[in-house]
Amino acid sequence: MELDKLITLYGAISSICQDYSRMTDGYSLATGDNQFEHIPEDIRNMISERQEFFSYREKVRGLLKSKIREEVKKI
Fold first, then answer.
1. Chunked in runs of 10, what are the mean pLDDT values of the chain (75 residues)?
2. Which of 1, 13, 36, 48 could form a disulfide with 57 if both were Cys (CB 3.0 to 4.6 A apart)?
3. Sign of the CA dihedral 40, 55, 1, 10?
4. How many CB atoms are located within 10 Å of the residue 60 CB?
């Protein structure tokens, strides 16, 4: 994948991760359940999906770092 596409993908995934972080933080603040001990099923699913996207972001971050290294070696 080209560097510009990786950058765009990373940005999009990061934005999704930020949205999930805001939602889970909002849940914690609204309910006082900051240990996430009594979460309803829909929130549990959201947290699971959030973790999925965080793993995607880490994978793309690794690809992005490799691609940047390749490009810098050409300089």
1. 94 95 82 78 88 97 96 92
2. 13
3. positive
4. 19
What is the rounded CA–CA span in Å between residue 28 and residue 7? Answer: 31
Handedness of CA 50, 52, 58, 62 (dihedral sign): negative
Model confidence, pTM: 0.80
Task: Please work out, in degrees rounded to the nearest 5, the angle formed at the alpha carbon of residue 60 by the alpha carbons of 64 and 41.
Answer: 160
- The whole-angstrom separation of Cα 16 and Cα 18 is 5
Enumerate the domain spans of the chain: 3-73
